[in-house]
Write a structure and sequence with these properties.
Elements lengths: L2 H15 L3 H48 L4 E5 L6 E9 L2 E13 L2 E10 L4 E8 L8 H4 L2 H4 L13 E2 L5 E2 L6 H21 L2
């Protein structure tokens, strides 16, 4: 390659590197336009799906409430208990049957949303997890297993807080899912404490 050809090739490369300012402005505008359209579409999709998701979650929670403590009606109660998202008095035949507490525990994959039934004596009648992000085939062995969650039935704070794999008020956690087990135990303890606080 001659010196002239080499110089010409270098000039072509230099011109490629020096982008036209009009081209840069056009490219930036195009990218901004695409981003704006995508953001708008995401906003529209969120507006359309949010009420549907909320309704589905409400139905799931209602089903969980009747699963953990069957009653004719659930009357919302005021509570400021930490970790409690909602507290209901369960009533049958106009008489109190116990309480249903919506709580959140911290699991391996984030918050574990659950519903805990507690009878009038402060004893767990059932636990149902309504939403979680736990690892499949590990944490899900805790939060999705009725046999595991069924261990809580009959437990109370009479012997102190429920603990994982130790103590007199013992919950047998799932091997390899210690964080998930602790998250559920924490939620149940929170629910029991909230109900105990009503009597104070």
């Amino acid at each position: 390659m001659s010196k002239r050809e080499t110089a010409a090739a270098k000039e072509v490369q230099r011109q490629k590197l020096e982008l036209d300012p009009k081209y840069i402005i056009k490219l930036t505008g195009t990218l901004l336009g695409i981003s704006a359209v995508v953001a708008l579409l995401l906003g529209v999709v969120n507006q359309v799906t949010a009420p549907i998701i909320e309704e589905m979650q409400a139905e799931k929670t209602a089903a969980a409430m009747s699963q953990v403590l069957e009653a004719e009606e659930y009357l919302p109660l005021e509570t400021e208990a930490e970790g409690v998202t909602a507290l209901y008095e369960a009533r049958t035949g106009g008489e109190p049957a116990g309480y249903v507490v919506e709580v959140s525990g911290s699991g391996y994959g984030g918050a574990i949303q659950m519903v805990v039934g507690v009878d009038l004596s402060g004893t767990v009648t059932g636990v149902s997890v309504t939403d979680h992000g736990e690892t499949s085939n590990v944490g899900t062995k805790v939060v999705e297993s009725e046999a595991v969650l069924g261990q809580f039935v009959g437990m109370s704070l009479a012997d102190g807080e429920i603990t994982v794999n130790s103590g007199t008020n013992r919950f047998d956690g799932v091997s390899g899912a210690t964080v998930s087990s602790r998250g559920v135990v924490s939620g149940v303890n929170t629910a029991l404490a909230a109900v105990a606080g009503l009597a104070e």
